[in-house]
Amino acid sequence: MVLHQISRRSLLRVLPAGCFGCAAAVSCGAQATVPAHSASEKCDLTWEELFRFAYQKDLIPMLKGLAAQIGREKFVQMIQDVMGRLAEQGMARSPIPKRDFATFAANLRNVPPMMQHALQYQVLEDGPQALEYRVTGCLWAKSFLGQDAGDIGYAMVCSPDLAVARGFNPKLKLTRTQTLMQGGDSCHFRYTMEA
User: Is the pLDDT of residue 142 over 50?
Assistant: First the structure.
């Protein structure tokens, strides 16, 4: 009997419980012991493989398909507007007791592990009045640019940086002269606080 001709009910009688959906379901027999799977288990992916899976497999092609239906320019603007609003509101609601430059800079100095692995950057200035750094490698840019979707990536990933600054404190200013996502050789960030 060929597997694709077996009904779902018959398949469940042939395969051991818990095997349905297992990658080895096709080759395991009814006597096989299948280990329990847990969503909290660590997977064996590099950060680059994770980004490729998360963005390039389905998300970017779907976003490009929507852009083709709506119109690319309109779609990109819609993403930028929504992502900006979400980023600003999310940051404004964050329970941050002190919204001064020192607090913001301290948060940027202690980036979470995902950011440490997704970005290659160098700090150019780290003082009480300014924080400036240059990003020379970015897995988001690599993912979106590799799918000819830098404009969508900028709207979704890069543009919200400006809204995050506003949401943290309206006096916090981000000056960014270029981004990898827009074809630059780096992303150049400079944060300052107006008096």
Answer: yes
Q: Which domain holds residue 31?
A: 1-38
CA distance 99 to 95: 10
CA 124 to chain CA centroid, nearest Å:
25
Kindly calculate the radius of gyration of the chain based on its CA atoms and give it in whole angstroms. 23
Question: Are residues 53 and 33 part of one domain?
Answer: no
Q: How far apart are CA 180 and CA 145, in angstroms?
A: 9
Contacts within 8 Å (CB) and 24+ apart, 88-95: 88/163, 88/164, 88/166, 88/167, 89/167, 90/167, 91/163, 91/164, 91/166, 91/167, 91/168, 92/167, 92/168, 94/167
The CATH number of the domain holding residue 175 is 3.30.1380
**Strand pairing partners for 173?**
192
Give the residue among 136, 142, 141 at the shortest CA–CA distance from 123: 136
For residue 31, give both structure tokens: 């006597």
Q: Smallest Cα–Cα separation from 86: which of 159, 165, 163?
A: 163
pLDDT tens per residue across span 69-121: 999 999 999 999 999 999 999 999 999 989 999 999 998 888 888 888 999 99
C-beta neighbour count of 52 within 10 angstroms: 16
Residue 79 · residue 72 · CB < 8 Å: no
